[in-house]
Amino acid sequence: MNLKIKYFGMIAEITGKKEENLVSEIGDTEEITQLLALKYPAMENLEYKIAVDQEIILSKQNLTEKSVIALLPPFSGG
Amino acid sequence: MKKKAKKVFQEGPIAASFVGESIAKHQSKTSIGAHSIFMGQVRADEINGKTVCAINYSAYEEMAEKEFYNLREETFEKFELSCMHIHHSLGKVNVGEICLFVFVSAKHRKVVFEALEFLVEEIKTRIPIFGKEIFEDDSQTWKVNT
């Protein structure tokens, strides 16, 4: 499956990019966390939320080819 | 009352004159009896002996604008407001400059205090905005809302 992942804040710094396409057999959001921790070891202990199609997910969610995934570090607006 | 989506983000700080003009624009709305305003100002925090001189803001803009829209709708449902304006900076805002401006108006005073506090707290926890504190020696650290 070809997945589009967006990175923000300190996560974009760690990955060195604002977004990327990952081609993998990933089927749900937990697998994304595992895959990214392998690809970017600095992310393993980092606190972040995952948004799928601009909604923050609270539990594991299945993904489709069209899902837009975003990794969001802690917010600091205001 | 349904309101159309308005753009919240602007590049750089929010000028004091902009705040003043926003107030002036409401003088024709004579059913309003109370305004309440919150302004977030960039603070010169000292962290590990170094002083913050600016914050550089970025955001997941599409999601943030959508969340701001939802938050506006929720706030209008929860509180009897006449109008509501939210502006947030992106990019660099120096210490002492304004990065967030929230402005609510209603017939009477009580509701504007409550609505304003609700809005500011929700903005801080719900909206995907990321601030990076820049120190005088050009080093940087990511800020986290507490």
What does this structure look like?
- The complex is a heterodimer of chains A (78) and B (146).
- Chain A is 23% helix and 28% strand.
- With 78 residues, chain A is α+β, with helices and mostly antiparallel strands.
- Chain A has one domain (2-72): Ubiquitin-like (UB roll).
- Chain A has a 5-stranded mixed beta sheet with strand order 2-1-5-3-4.
- The model of chain B has no long low-confidence stretch (mean pLDDT 95).
- In chain B, helix 2 runs antiparallel to helix 3 (109-126).
- Chain B has a single domain, classed as Alpha-Beta Complex (Aldehyde Oxidoreductase, domain 3).
- By secondary structure, chain B is α+β, with helices and mostly antiparallel strands.
- Chains A and B meet through loops of A and strand 4, helix 2, helix 3 and strand 7 of B.
**Assembly type of the shown chains?**
heterodimer
Which sheet architecture does the biggest sheet of chain B show?
8 strands, mixed
CATH fold annotation of chain B: Aldehyde Oxidoreductase, domain 3
- In CATH's first tier, which class of chain B applies? Alpha Beta
CATH architecture of chain A: Roll
The CATH homologous superfamily of chain A corresponds to Beta-grasp domain
Shape of chain B: elongated
CATH topology of chain A: Ubiquitin-like (UB roll)
Q: Largest interface: which pair?
A: A-B, 14 and 26 residues
CATH class identity of chain A: Alpha Beta
| Helix content percent band of chain A | 10-25%
Strand content of chain A: 25-35%
Based on the model shown, name its key terms.
heterodimer; A: 78 residues; alpha+beta; Ubiquitin-like (UB roll); 5-stranded mixed beta sheet; 23% helix; globular; B: 146 residues; Aldehyde Oxidoreductase, domain 3; 8-stranded mixed beta sheet; 3 helices; 8 strands; 32% helix; 37% strand
